[in-house]
Amino acid sequence: MADQLQKRQVLLEETLTQVVARGTPISELEARLIADASAVRSIEEALRHEVAGRSFSMKIVARLPSWMKPRIGRLRHYEPKPLRVPARYLRTRAPERAPTITIVTPSFQQGRFLERTIYSVVSQQYPDLEYVVQDGGSSDQTLDVLQRFEPLLTRWISEEDGGQGDAINRGFRETTGDIMAWLNSDDLLLPGSLACVARFFVEQPDVDVVYGHRLMIDENDAQIGSWILPRHDDVALTLADYIPQETLFWRRRVWEAVGSRVDPSFAYALDWDLLLRFRDVGAKMARIPRYLGAFRVHDEQKTTVSHMVGSSECSRLRERVHGRDISVHEVYQRLKPYLLRHLLIDTCHRFVDRMPVQRVPVSTVPSEPWLRLHAAEAVRGQPISTSLGSSM
Domain residues of the chain, as ranges? Predict the structure, then answer.
């Protein structure tokens, strides 16, 4: 009976693959999914009676519902576990002629996380990094952190600003990097991300914007979830913002094409507005099939406390793009093909994650000896060396 259930799961995955590839109408796909779901429920019921005492079978039954639900859009998927990445991430090397990467971190009252954010960037040993921290006049431990990391930063400033958008615009002024990004002061870049992004841009000169998969972490840097993104879809981009901001990088040429600024009137949907403006000027976007960043989930974050503001801004952007108000129901209906592709690739990733692939822990806080050593190296103009796979 357990074999029947597993075979039905495989058949369902094959059906999803085929219909997505052929562009099968959603109504037909829904009918197939309903039929398969009915068959699976019948098998589940038989399993409950026949093998109620077999833990393996019951685990399969218990997990079926969660495996059929999209996980993008949700911020917690499982209980906290150590933050780890594939060992190959640490072996990623920048291209021989590495383009300059400019990163700006807007900051305000996030001193307890800022050290980890900065460390996740400067410890990557990227050969041509321009890193700016633009703080809004914090009164917590932020200044202590910035002073400790000062030799490893291109510049930092702490002054009153008009909010996150204004801070980002200030931070990018007078920067020169061909590749650009901002990283919020509570998020992380994952090991090897800068080298991976630079290599992709060098090998794909026609691509203007890239992003990748996301991990979610809690206040203690423990992993609590992941977003696995399908290939880029311009239609989906006009309906919802599933692109993880902390994994987003773009070329300066497209930044200049949209006015060299984010729109500070947005408090929540800054990145979505910027992406839609990139789309308006014809930017080519691509998803890199790799985890690039970690999004921190905590009670004080803007994403949590500004839900109503965010909903209003998202509606405003949809109306701007489509010329009319788009209901939540219509958004969901039109996103179904994208969500089905997500479901398929996410299922594949879950199987891969259970394979014996070598993974290493990600160190998120530097030791004082590390900081003193590499601050001195930066002052002397020597390259920073580190091993993110070892504990500090």
Answer: 2-67, 84-353
pTM above the 0.85 mark?
no
Of 322, 313, 229, 323, the C-alpha closest to 270 is 313
Nearest CA among 131, 250, 260, 253 for reference residue 198:
250
> Which value, in Å, is the radius of gyration of the alpha carbons in the chain?
22
pLDDT tens by residue, 90-138: 999 999 999 999 999 999 999 999 999 999 999 999 999 999 999 999 9
Q: What is the CATH number of domain 84-353?
A: 3.90.550.10
Supply φ then ψ for residue 103, to 5 degrees.
Answer: -125, 135
Annotate 62-95 with DSSP letters as a single string.
HHHHHHTS--TT-S--SS-B--EEEGGGGG----
d(CA 244, CA 190) in angstroms, rounded, equals: 13
Length of the chain: 392
N-term to C-term CA, the chain: 49
Six token digits for residue 228: 């696995």
H/E element, 384: none
